[in-house]
Amino acid sequence: MRKTATTQRGGGIPAQPGPRDASATTEPGVRHMARSAEAGARQGAHVAEVGASSAVRSAEAASAAAVVQAPDQVIPGAGPAPRTAAGAASRPGERPTVRLREDGPDEPEAPRYAPEWLQLREGADAVARAGELLDPLRIRLANLPGRAGGLVVHDLGCGTGSMGRWLAPRLDGAQHWILHDRDPYLLHFAAVGSPRSAADGSRVTVESRRGDVARLTPDALAGASLVTASALLDVLTREEIDTLAAACAGAGCPALLTLSVAGRVELTPSHPLDTEIAEAFNAHQRRGGLLGPDAVTAACEAFSERGATVHLHPSPWRLGPDEADLTAQWLRGWVGAAVEERPDLRERADAYLRDRLEACAAGELNVIVHHTDLLALSRPMGGSA
Question: Are strands 175-180 and 204-209 parallel, antiparallel or unpaired?
Fold first, then answer.
């Protein structure tokens, strides 16, 4: 059993406002950080200061005990929440866009993702991502026209910036990361928690974007060297994935899209209700036209139709006794989504969840949550592949 990687810890993440009280939080420190992040986004650039590294260490992670102190609650992002109808049609005259949890005037509020949940899963994500896709990516990046000026990387739905912390130190050369997220609170952590140097010691800088960051047009990727995202494809519609593929093809840049749900879960020891819960969860993932476990297939088709070479590699979470806190939160969210999809499961699911949580706490439960990583190598613009 592989142990998940850990990030530096020290102190806790400030309280995260919930979906309904985000704009009314009474904590001055939270208000100040949100205003700071929004101001940076309005100015168009938020370059991380080297001196901020100590700040992010104190604000990056809550302790595992604090994360799971309410055993009957699910951290926002780990379980079901009101979801935007992501496939809503564009208004007349608008260009197609990829929407990343943006709330329009006629749309319900989209889910918020608590930094505690993103921190809790970061180690498992880092271990799971397919390092095997990095060599073909490095080869393509080395041959991109204009590479001498450094890489420009767009990280879509960046959350607290875990993708940058994983990937930037694995790539050579100067890098400028453009972090996209609708949540200024998360953008704050992503910006100050970004890595400072590449694999060869070259400088890494960061810019954060909010406001129209929830929409990606082909023009937005002008000059991009790479598009990245983590756990994103499965919360998009087919139209949005088509638009993403078209934008990458139009910019001639590769896309590394990691940790898309595959719709398969393995629990050891097994339980008679495992399959029924999994099927209900997968149906929940497909609500509102979202693709859920069908997203990788749709993305393969969309990128291939536009001339890209597509590589796939499994990237499963492998959760054992050392990851009990993450497993417990994942279980609550997994079962909760299944019950929301099929309320008739509730009585049996409640007993199932109690049994599973007891086994998890006793170190007697192992879980494999299957994901897939996708690397799409679009034809470069102005140069040979």
Answer: parallel
Two structure tokens written together for 28: 């001055």
* Number of Cα atoms under 13 Å in the Cβ half of residue 206: 31
Question: What is the rounded distance in angstroms from the CA atom of residue 132 to the CA atom of residue 314?
Answer: 10
Q: Which residue has the tokens 């041959």?
A: 143
Q: Please choose, from the candidates 295, 332, 337, 262, the residue with its C-alpha nearest in 3D space to the C-alpha of residue 120.
A: 332
What sign results for the dihedral spanned by CA atoms 296, 298, 302, 307? positive
Let me know the angle formed at the C-alpha of 35 by 217 and 26, rounded to the nearest 5 degrees: 130
Tokens representing residue 260 in the block = 């898309």
User: In the structure encoding, which two tokens stand for residue 139, read together?
Assistant: 């080869």
SS3 75: coil
> Phi-psi region for residue 146, left (φ > 0), alpha (ψ -120 to 50) or beta?
left
Q: What is the pLDDT of residues 192-215, one digit of tens each?
A: 999 999 999 999 999 998 844 446
Tens-place pLDDT, residues 102-132 = 444 444 344 467 788 888 999 999 999 999 9
Hey, is 156 helix, strand or coil?
Answer: strand
- 18, 114 contact by CB (below 8 A): no
